[in-house]
Amino acid sequence: MDAVTVALVLVVAAIVPFFVTMARRANGQSNDRARRKLVLETGMPASATILSVEETAPYNNRVPHLSFELRVEPQGEPPFQATARGFFSMIDYPRLQPGLRVEVCFDPGDHSNLAIVGDKVK
Q1: C-alpha dist (Å) from residue 22 to 9, 17, 28, 36
Q2: CATH number for the domain including 55?
Q3: DSSP H or E segment with residue 67
Q4: Which of 36, 48, 53, 57 has the smallest set of CB atoms within 10 Å of its CB?
Q5: Domain extent for 13
Q6: Would you say 67 and 54 are in contact if contact means Cβ atoms under 8 Å apart?
Q7: How many other C-beta atoms lie within 10 A of the C-beta of residue 109?
Q8: Which three-class secondary structure state does DSSP give residue 76?
């Protein structure tokens, strides 16, 4: 092989894993959005208190990915703790702190499947 062919093979070998990783991330984010949409449409509403907040991934287009430990208090059921993750607006980020009450929707059959309702931060 000549030097140009070797250089081309090295470039392709370096670039392909990057694009494979980006495609996997995009697919995972798409699955997360679909799961969140479904639980918001079909889940049980409840109030929750933020117990802790953590940045869990690099920003995506300057939007932080956050993980929340929540104490969920559904009507007529005992409270439970669960984790919610997602991208949240930089505008909302400063007020999404421990002690804040938020509205959530959760799957009654799987309490780990829940989402914070977008505009219902109080």
Answers
A1: 20, 9, 10, 21
A2: 2.40.50.140
A3: strand 63-73
A4: 57
A5: 3-121
A6: yes
A7: 7
A8: coil
